[in-house]
Amino acid sequence: MNNSPGGRLVLTHSTHIPGLIAVLERLTKYNGIQTITPAVIGRAKGHSPRLQLKVSVPIRGGFKLIARQGKTFQEVFIITSCPKDELETAIFQAMK
User: Fold this and answer.
1) Which pLDDT tens digit goes with each residue over 51-67?
2) InterPro entries annotated for this entry (predicted)?
3) Cβ neighbours for 85, distance < 8 A, ≥ 6 positions apart
């Protein structure tokens, strides 16, 4: 396992929610985060006036996040050794 701080951001999709990549790049600098992969983008029923990033469910080796802005959502997968509460704190810091 890599003990150095900082992870990598995998950019596989051509479209992302505006502002999401900048937040994810800041999040890669957090110790314990290994890989961040933005995934499926879609339309939501509700409206979120500004970018939100919320931990959704645990996955093997990390967590799935949901990013929302306007009527658009995007799944984000994070491989990390951090517990959920520590990841939520890191996300809060990266969103500033």
Assistant:
1) 999 999 999 999 999 99
2) DUF2103_metal-binding (IPR018664)
3) none
